[in-house]
């Protein structure tokens, strides 16, 4: 069975609902459920949990986790054969999410939009996180908050929950085998963001980064699913959005500040990208 990942596209943030600790004796088993409506994150601390989801089945041992999806059928594969205990966390997520059988390098990285702060959490559906002891301490504290029903712990609960997701998250900066394509695409992105106001061409990027322009284009398309010039064009327009909202500069000045040398061309590009003219876009944010 291939490794499966669940990717949550933020915003919005995942929302913590509840936690519990379940213990089974030999012969007992997890209940069968259909369309729970919430994500169910299991952290096994003792024994083995035999559980399935649709056509997949797992043996989740102590020190391992399993993320069950809200719209699937979950069932017990067989009863526990020894004492088993696990924490479960129910959480909701109203945003866009996807399940995929690939690592994060195969997915296009999101480009930061001007008026958003996007992020993508990638969680392994089944994992043995190396920091499980730390996670267990967080789980113990989270359960204590729940049992004691303490007032004023709302933010502490959500902080612990987010930290638990962080212990599971698969991040590019954790990888010791980051691909050459990822490294060059990241350098290209950084260079574009730093020099987007100037005249940039594939040849200029090649000279600055010391790689053949065709190789730079190939790496950007592999990681970001767009060419360097396409990324540059979109980034310039995102910066224009910010300037339209945050300044009173004229359209001509904003065009020049974002690397467009001719205001009419900038206006045409902006309307094609944002679906409205620069002036109408600005008026949306004026009282």
TrEMBL record:
Domain of life: Bacteria
Pfam short name (any one): HTH_18
Stretches assigned to the HTH araC/xylS-type domain: 186-284
Name of the protein described by the UniProt record: AraC-type DNA-binding protein
SUPFAM superfamilies cross-referenced by the UniProt entry: Homeodomain-like, Regulatory protein AraC
PANTHER family tied to this protein: ARAC-FAMILY TRANSCRIPTIONAL REGULATOR, HTH-TYPE TRANSCRIPTIONAL REGULATOR EXSA
Keyword S-adenosyl-L-methionine attributed: no
Organism for this UniProt entry: Paenibacillus catalpae
UniProt keywords, alphabetically: DNA-binding, Transcription, Transcription regulation
Gene3D superfamilies in the cross-refs: Homeodomain-like
Matches recorded under InterPro entries: Homeodomain-like_sf, HTH-like, HTH_AraC, HTH_AraC-typ_CS
SMART domains given in the database record: HTH_ARAC (SM00342)
GO molecular function, one term: sequence-specific DNA binding
Membrane among keywords: no
Coiled coil: none
């Amino acid at each position: 069975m291939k490794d499966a990942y669940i990717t949550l596209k933020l915003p919005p943030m995942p929302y913590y609902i509840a936690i519990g600790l379940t213990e089974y004796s030999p012969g007992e088993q997890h209940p069968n459920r259909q369309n729970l409506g919430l994500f169910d994150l299991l952290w096994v601390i003792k024994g083995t949990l035999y559980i399935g989801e649709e056509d997949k089945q797992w043996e989740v041992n102590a020190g391992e986790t399993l993320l069950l999806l809200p719209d699937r059928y979950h069932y017990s594969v067989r009863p526990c054969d020894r004492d088993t205990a696990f924490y479960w966390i129910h959480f909701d997520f109203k945003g866009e999410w996807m399940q995929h059988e690939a690592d994060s390098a195969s997915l296009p990285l999101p480009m930061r939009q001007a008026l958003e702060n996007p992020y993508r959490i990638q969680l392994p559906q089944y994992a043995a996180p190396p920091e499980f002891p730390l996670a267990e301490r967080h789980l113990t504290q989270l359960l204590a908050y729940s049992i004691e029903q303490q007032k004023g712990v709302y933010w502490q609960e959500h902080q612990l929950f987010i930290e638990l997701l962080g212990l599971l998250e698969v991040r590019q900066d954790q990888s010791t085998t980051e691909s050459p394509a990822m490294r060059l695409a990241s350098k290209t992105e950084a260079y574009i963001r730093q020099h987007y106001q100037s005249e940039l061409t594939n040849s200029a990027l090649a000279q600055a980064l010391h790689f053949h322009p065709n190789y730079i284009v190939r790496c950007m398309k592999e990681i970001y699913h767009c060419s360097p010039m396409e990324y540059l064009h979109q980034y310039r327009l995102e910066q224009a959005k910010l300037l339209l909202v945050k300044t009173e500069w004229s359209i001509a000045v904003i065009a020049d500040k974002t690397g467009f040398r001719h205001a009419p061309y900038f206006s045409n590009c902006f309307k094609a990208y944002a679906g409205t003219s620069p002036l109408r876009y600005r008026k949306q944010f004026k009282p």
